[in-house]
Amino acid sequence: MSEHRLSLAPMMERTDRHFRFLMRLITRRTRLYSEMVVDRTLIHGDAARHLDYHPAEHPVALQLGSADPGLAARAVAVARPWGYDEVNLNAGCPSPRVQAGGFGVVLMRTPERVAEIVRAVYEATGALPSVKHRVGLDEHEDYAFLARFVEVVAASGVRVFVVHARKAWTQGLDPKANRTAPPLEHAKVYRLKRDFPELTIVTNGGVGTPEEARAHLAHVDGVMVGRAMWDRPWRWAAADRLLWGDAHTPDRRAVLERYQAYLHERLAEGVPLRVLVRPLFNLFKGEPGGRRWRQQLDAALRAGRLPAGGLAALAPVEVGA
């Protein structure tokens, strides 16, 4: 059974260590990806700020943004002591800032460059990155372009490909529109798995429930989910049972109690309350009492503290699993 059966997608300003910890309380098995971190940020910036995480987060992956083999190798060398289970190279982000840096989805035009980056990282650190990319970009939308990208990159040793099943437009669409406007083409990702059976192929895009993820697993090795986990995190409490046959089902009150203990640990380290509470806002979304939950969290943030009864005191009556 693939280690990548279900993954939380890297999302800027979403998949920080606090949201990842919350999702680990909800699902034991899901692989958690960090926000993308640019190579120079790790080399010249505050590495711990971007790399620290709770040991419970394993399996956890670091996503790297880089277009330079030497810088990528140096950045991964900086990250190695943190013990991430995977380093993932971003070849799928279409944002103008990322394009200006020469990485993200524009790397799909030069698979040889991606292969150089992978080899440099492996030779310097022993880490063999995975690659996240699109099914195509701009005028490059035929399957042959996608298959050649995978073939060239796989020759460098990469064995895990996470494929956003939409092509990207590098002009004319903002990053948000690029997540929704181009049509989903999961069939192309399925075909990759048929044509490259020795590789681990993970599909990404438009998956909203564990049941939908399970349907995709008839064709690929794994499914990556982004906004659907951020928007409705508790919906994924059934993931371990449905996708792995795990009999354990999390209890929401227990999740709140454990997250509150985590929250107090981080507060003692100087993390702002608002940063720690933000991942919780959607925990009851679409359920009775969900709106009141959000309102009470807002009130707690305005007051600058949680009530005496803690998070459980704010939760709707329907707080059980």
UniProtKB/TrEMBL annotation:
Alphabetized NCBIfam families for the sequence: PRK11815.1
Role this protein plays: Catalyzes the synthesis of 5,6-dihydrouridine (D), a modified base found in the D-loop of most tRNAs, via the reduction of the C5-C6 double bond in target uridines. Specifically modifies U20 and U20a in tRNAs.
Family: Belongs to the dus family.
Catalyzed reaction equations: 5,6-dihydrouridine(20a) in tRNA + NAD(+) = uridine(20a) in tRNA + NADH + H(+); 5,6-dihydrouridine(20) in tRNA + NADP(+) = uridine(20) in tRNA + NADPH + H(+); 5,6-dihydrouridine(20) in tRNA + NAD(+) = uridine(20) in tRNA + NADH + H(+); 5,6-dihydrouridine(20a) in tRNA + NADP(+) = uridine(20a) in tRNA + NADPH + H(+)
Active site: C93 (proton donor)
Record-given protein name: tRNA-dihydrouridine(20/20a) synthase
Site, as annotated: Interacts with tRNA: N90, K176, R179, R291, R294
Broad EC category: oxidoreductase
Signal peptide span: none
EC number: 1.3.1.91
Annotated residues for binding of FMN: P10, M11, M12, Q63, K132, H164, N204, G205, G206, G226, R227
One Gene Ontology molecular-function label: tRNA binding
Domain spans labelled DUS-like FMN-binding: 8-300
InterPro entries registered for this protein in UniProt: Aldolase_TIM, DUS-like_FMN-bd, DUS_fam, DusA
Cofactor: FMN
Keywords recorded for this protein, A-Z: Flavoprotein, FMN, NADP, Nucleotide-binding, Oxidoreductase, RNA-binding, tRNA processing, tRNA-binding
